C-alpha cells in the first residue's frame, strides 16, 4: 500500500477500478461507490431466486414476442423475430410472460418438479 | 481590481453567485433567504448570468434538483434557511455521500417551534453531522468571500463535498454593511471552469452513481467521506491563501483575535464574533487580557488550530446560538471541550447559550461573560458550567 | 474602538424608514466611511410602529448587536411621540430630528427632556409639495445632514442623485422631486 497522501487524487478518493471485490479496503474502493463498468448487472445471476420457471411450448407458440416485450428482466431471448429460449441464469420466475401469452404457450412449472424430472431422466440413463 | 460598496448580506451573496455564474440554481424562497433567490432570479431574467434557474416547489426538491444537476456534470447551487434546510435534511446527506460539490448559502434562522423567523444556528447545527462542509461568516464581506471560495473547496478533487455557507439571518442578511467586491473577471478566473470528474452525461464513460450500498460497502464509503473532510482542511487553507492573493483578505480555518497573550477567551461563530471582538478591545484598554476565537470552519472541525490557539488561555467561554437538549451544553461547547481535554492543563471551559430565536446579544452580555471568566481565572472555581445569556431568569 | 455614531429611526410601516436607513448607509459608505443600516424585523404591517438603525464610523464596525443608546433619533411620524419610546437610551447630548408641524420647544415639552438638541421640520408638507405624496423619508435625510454635518451637503446631494437615478431609472420626475425635498428640508429645518 502506498503511503497516505491527501493530494493524490486516486488515493482514498477511489480509483476508476472496474474490479470491485468485497475484500477491498475503504481506500481501494471507488469514490462514493461509483460503478465504472456499464451493464454489470449481467454478472449478477438472479436465476436462483426462482421457485417456478417458465417452460416454452414450441407447438403452441405463434412467435408474437409479447413475452419478450413484457419480461422485466430481459430474460426472453429472441432471434430473427422468433422466440429462441429463456435466460434461466437471470429469469426470476415472475410469470409475467405466461400471463401475457395469448396462446398459453408458456407453462409455469415449480422448480422442484423440474428437479424431479431431471433426476428421473438421470435414473433412466 | 476591487471596489468598496454598501450591500446587505443577501445582496452580497447574490452578487457572488452572479459572478460565479453557476450552471444550475434550484431554490425555493424562505425568510430570511428570500432576497438571495429573488435577486438572483432577476439576474437570470435580465440575462446577466447563463444559469438555468429551476423554480422548485419545496426545498426537498431544490436540493434534489441540485443533486441531479451536479450528478449530470453541472456546477449547481441552492440556498435556504431554517425550515427549508430541515425539509432538505435527508437529501443533504445524499448530496454529501454522492460527493457532489453543491454550494449552498444558509441564512441562519431558528427552527420552529415556537414559530420564529429570526437568527439562531439551530438550522445549521441540525446538519452538523450530514457530511457537508460548513463555513460561517461574521459579516457580508465574509459571506461574499466564503461563497467564492466555497466553489473551489467543494470542487477540489480531494474533497468533492457540498459546502454550506452560513450567515446570520437579518443581522447579516438584511443589514447594510460596507464590503469590498472583486470584479467579475477576477472571480471568474478564481473559480475557473468546472471540470467534473465523474458525471452521468459523459456518454464516453458510462457510470452509475448513488448505488445501493449494503453492510458490506456502506461503512467503507462513509470512511471515504471522513477522509475527504480531513483533506478539506488543507484544501480550505490553500484556497484561503490563494484568495488572499487576489483580494488582500486571507482566510484560514479559524480567526484568532488577540489570543497570543490572552488570559480569557470567548469562542463564537458568525456575527456575534464581531460584537465579542469589540468588547475584547474595550476590556484590553482596561487591562483585561481578552481574546476571541472565531471558527470559520465548523465542519470539518479544526481541532489542531483551536488547541494551538487556546493552549495559553486560562479560562474559555464557548457561546452557542443553538441548544442540544443534552442538558450539558451546546454543540460547539462539546467540541471545544473535547479538543482541550488533550492539553491536560486544566483550562476552565464554560458554556453560554445565547441569542436563540434572534434574542439580541448585547455588548454588556459579552462583557459579563469576560467578567465571569476573569473570576474563574482568579479563583480557579467554576460554579456553573452551562449558563444562559440574555435569558430572563 | 473608534467612535461610532448610532442612529435610531422611528416610523410606521410603509413610511420608508428602512429604505431611508439603507439609502443613508449607501450614501455615507460612498463617502468612504464605514456604515451599517438595518431594520428591526417583526410581524409589523403597514401603519404599525417600526424602528430602523444606522451605525457610522471612520473605522470598520465590528459590533452586530442592536442599537441601544442612539446618539441620534429620527422620528418620521409625529403621532409616535408618546407611543413609541422615542427617548429610551438616548444620552444627554442626544439629537432628535422630528417630522412635525410643531416647534422644537413644543416637541421638547412633549418628549419631557431638558437636554439634547431638537430639530423639527414639516417633512409631510415638503414631500407633498415636491414629490406629490406624503413620504417623509427623503426630506428627513436632508435634515439629518443639516443636524450632524457628517457629510458636506453638496457631496451628499451628488451621491443621492446617483442613487435615486439607479432606483428610479424610468421616473425622472421622482428623482428631481426627492432631491428638491432633501434640499428644502436641509434649508427649512428648525433647531433648538
UniProtKB/TrEMBL annotation, chain A:
Q: Does the keyword Nucleus apply?
A: no
Q: Which cofactor does it need?
A: [4Fe-4S] cluster
For this protein, the record's InterPro entries field holds:
4Fe4S_Fe-S-bd, 4Fe4S_Fe_S_CS, PorD_KorD
List keywords of the entry alphabetically.
4Fe-4S, Iron, Iron-sulfur, Metal-binding, Pyruvate, Repeat
Alphabetically, the GO molecular function entries are:
4 iron, 4 sulfur cluster binding; metal ion binding; oxidoreductase activity, acting on the aldehyde or oxo group of donors, iron-sulfur protein as acceptor
Q: In what residue span(s) does the 4Fe-4S ferredoxin-type domain sit?
A: 52-81, 82-111
**PANTHER family in UniProt:** PYRUVATE SYNTHASE SUBUNIT PORD (PTHR43724)
Stated name of the protein: Pyruvate ferredoxin oxidoreductase delta subunit
Look up and give the organism this protein is from: Thermosediminibacter litoriperuensis
UniProtKB/TrEMBL annotation, chain B:
Q: Where is the Pyruvate flavodoxin/ferredoxin oxidoreductase pyrimidine binding domain positioned along the sequence?
A: 16-239
Asked if the keyword Magnesium belongs to this entry, the reply reads no
User: Which InterPro entries is this protein grouped with?
Assistant: PFOR_II, Pyruvate:ferred/Flavod_OxRd, Pyrv_Fd/Flavodoxin_OxRdtase_N, THDP-binding, Transketo_C/PFOR_II
Q: Which UniProt keywords apply?
A: Oxidoreductase, Pyruvate
Q: Which Pfam families match?
A: PFOR_II, POR_N
Q: Name one GO biological process term.
A: carboxylic acid metabolic process
Q: Does the keyword Oxidoreductase feature in the UniProt annotation? A: yes
For molecular function, the Gene Ontology terms on record are: oxidoreductase activity, acting on the aldehyde or oxo group of donors
Provide the Pyruvate:ferredoxin oxidoreductase core domain boundaries. 262-366
Family of the protein in this entry: Belongs to the pyruvate:ferredoxin/flavodoxin oxidoreductase family.
This one is known as: Pyruvate ferredoxin oxidoreductase, alpha subunit
Species for this entry: Thermosediminibacter litoriperuensis
From TrEMBL, chain C:
Record's NCBIfam families?
Answer: PorC_KorC (TIGR02175)
Entry-linked Gene3D superfamilies: Pyruvate-ferredoxin oxidoreductase, PFOR, domain III (3.40.920.10)
Q: Matching PANTHER family, A to Z?
A: PYRUVATE SYNTHASE SUBUNIT PORC
What protein name does the entry list? Pyruvate ferredoxin oxidoreductase, gamma subunit
| One Pfam family here | POR
InterPro entries linked? Oxidoreductase_gamma_subunit (IPR051626), PorC_KorC (IPR011894), Pyrv/ketoisovalerate_OxRed_cat (IPR019752), Pyrv_flavodox_OxRed_cen (IPR002869)
Q: Which UniProt keywords apply?
A: Oxidoreductase, Pyruvate
All residue ranges annotated as the Pyruvate/ketoisovalerate oxidoreductase catalytic domain in the record: 13-186
Organism this protein belongs to? Thermosediminibacter litoriperuensis
Recorded GO terms, molecular function? oxidoreductase activity, acting on the aldehyde or oxo group of donors, iron-sulfur protein as acceptor
Q: What is the lineage of its organism?
A: Bacteria, Bacillati, Bacillota, Clostridia, Thermosediminibacterales
